[in-house]
Every structure is written in structure tokens, then in C-alpha cells.
Task: structure prediction
Amino acid sequence: MIIREFRPNDLRRVHEIEHMSFSNPYDVNILKQLFDFGTGFLVAQIGDYIVGYILFWIVEEDRGHIISLAVDQNYKRQKVGSKLINTAMARFIDFNIYKITLEVKTHNKEAVDFYKSIGFKIDRKVSNYYEDGSDAFKMYFNFFEDTEDIDNNHILDDIDK
Result:
């Protein structure tokens, strides 16, 4: 499996994964606009087949945000999501971003447990966050409480383990 930058010809497959993963998937045009805007956009590929993707960006000078992470149902529990999020986290570190946030549906136990296993913590619950009226957990990950004098290479070594 390789993790690589999204390319426009990946859009159809990414949209298929988006559609199979979420009850209210992003429209294909939104995914393209996010790419055109310069959002971090990575795909996981096995052979010539895209099996997952992650969208992320820097929302403030010291905070990154995971917009979306999805893995083809047939490739779950094969470390695809972990490799995608670890690669995104390494990109954040490259830009001295040490706090990462995301939202996840409160009833999506599989996703909540996945993020908790990586070290994300629940910050708070937000009622009616999603279009369908579902509640969300706002979750966060802090590499450090104090980001002074950080050795980025040491962090990258830890992420790769």
C-alpha cells in the first residue's frame, strides 16, 4: 500500500468511497473544489486501486483539521485509515501544527473508537451538527501542550511506528 497525493483522475473512485462511507456524502463537485482550493488530499492505493482517502487543512496558524477520512468497506481493519491519518499528521508537523481537530457522528462508534485509539479525545458534543440532524463529537489531538523547542524528526519517527 502506498499513500500518495490525490490526482484529479482519482476523483471518481474517491467519490465512490465517500458515497459508500457516509449517509450524507460530499457531492463530487465539493471534493473537486476542496482539491482546487489546495486542501491536503491524500489517497491510499493498493496496486492500481484507490482504497481510501483523507482530506485535511490548516484552519488557524496553529491548528489543523481533518475534514474527511474514509476507507472502502472491503479494506477496513487493514491499517488503511491509520496510514492515511499518520501521513496527514506528519504533514501537519512539517508546518509546525501540533493540534488537530475533527468532528464525528456521536453514533459512529467505529470511528469514535478508531480516533480514540490514535489518541484523539472528545472535547464536546454538538447537537444537530450534521445536515441530517445528527449530533457530533468535536475531537482533538495535541502532540504537545507546550510547543516550544520541538524536535520534529523525533515526532516523525514515533508516527511511523
Notes: The first helix runs from residue 11 to 21. The helical segments are 11-21, 28-37, 80-94, 109-118, 152-160. Residues 34 and 55 are 8 Å apart (CA to CA). Residues 146-161 have pLDDT under 50 and may be disordered.
